[in-house]
Amino acid sequence: MAIPDLNLLIALDILLDESSVTKAAERLHLSPPAMSRALAKIRELIGDPVLVRSGRNLVPTPRALELHESVKALVERAQQVFTPADPVDPSKLNRTFYVRTNDFSFGEIVRKLNVALQVQAPNCSLCIVPEGIMDDHALAEGRIDLYVSRRRDFSPNTKLQQLFFANFVGIAREDHPIFKNEITPESFAKYSQISISRRGRARGPIDQQLQTLGLTRHVSFVSPSLLASLFYLVNTDLILPTFPKHLVPMIQGMGLKLKTFELPVPVDAVEIVQAWHPRLDSDPGHQWFRRLVKEVSAEI
């Protein structure tokens, strides 16, 4: 079955409003003959004359009167599709935002984001979805709204926005023997260390830097959680060599007896991004949430 010309719905709506072919033609910027042809097609499709002559005027048939309200509603709904959405009012937004991330990337940002949500959008909730060992299609499948972490190979159509660059410091208990003298590559490599990896990897860029100096370090503990690893430092001689600088205020607020130090070998900063599926690119609520994430990230 052939799909009818949906422009005829608009023509029908205006014809029923005006009860005049001439006036309807003027509103649609058509000639009266073109409007008459449209009316003829409408009559054929509906199987009803729609408008009939009564003296000098046209009047709607009972069938036309029956259809008028539903036709107008359909036209209005179609117009809404092509009308830009009004700016979202976060105070009236009622939504849960699902963000896949890790404590390395989001950490302090989560706290600030929660504070901002409570003030600006009290009916919204934030759900943190941890990263898994295997990457999946959560964005494409709509199971998460946003991915916040280091830049990686996303699908070509994924939308990306840079949030910040994470720089690193080392961290150990405040009375750790490493602080007794100047921290050199040799003294740094001397102590057992923690590696943070959700994939269970013990080696990384820092090992490459040490190798150029003829040094190796001993990684005695691999943890998938950055924040949980802090508690393993308090009563041991372990050191954590790659702690994000932007999280230092957070551990200071926790009251843990830990101390940071500048790394004796260079470690590149890591770019942190937020990524989302193009399906959500123009969603007003999602746009507002992305702006909020960007604003909060700029404060660290």
UniProtKB/TrEMBL annotation:
Q: Which Gene3D superfamilies match?
A: Periplasmic binding protein-like II, Winged helix-like DNA-binding domain superfamily/Winged helix DNA-binding domain
* Keyword annotations of the record: DNA-binding, Transcription, Transcription regulation
Superkingdom of the organism of origin: Bacteria
Q: Which Pfam families match?
A: HTH_1, LysR_substrate
HTH lysR-type domain ranges (all copies): 4-61
GO MF annotations in UniProt: DNA binding
Enumerate the CDD domains for this protein.
Answer: PBP2_DntR_like_1 (cd08460)
| InterPro entries per the UniProt record, alphabetical | LysR-type_TF (IPR050389), LysR_HTH_N (IPR000847), LysR_subst-bd (IPR005119), WH-like_DNA-bd_sf (IPR036388), WH_DNA-bd_sf (IPR036390)
Q: Which family does it belong to?
A: Belongs to the LysR transcriptional regulatory family.
Q: What is this protein called?
A: DNA-binding transcriptional regulator, LysR family
Q: Which organism is it from?
A: Pseudomonas poae
Q: Highest lineage ranks of the organism?
A: Bacteria, Pseudomonadati, Pseudomonadota, Gammaproteobacteria, Pseudomonadales
